[in-house]
Amino acid sequence: MATLAPLPAIPPTHGDITRDIVATLERPNRGYVLLLFGAIGLFLVGAITFLILVKDGLGHAGYNPPIFWSVYITTFVFWIGIGHAGTLISAILFLFRSPWRTAVYRSTEAMTVFAVMTAGLFPIIHIGREWVFYWLLPYPNERFLWPNFKSPLLWDVFAISTYLTVSTLFLCYGLMPDIAAVRDKMSGWRKLIYRWTSVGWQGTDNQWRHYSRAYLYLAALATPLVLSVHSVVSWDFASALVPAWHGTIFAPYFVAGAIYSGLGMVMTLIIPLRKVLKLEHIITAYHFDNLSKLTLLTGSILFYSYSMEYFIAWYSGNPFEQTTFWLRPFGPYWWAGWTMITCNAFISQLLWFKKIRVNITALFVISIFINLGMWFERFVIIVSSLSNDFIPWAWDGMNPTWADWGILAGSFGWFGMWFLLFAKNFPIVAIQELKEMIPMPRKRGGHH
Question: Which ranges of 317-401 would DSSP assign to H, the alpha helix?
Answer without folding.
Answer: 319-330, 334-341, 354-357, 360-379, 385-386
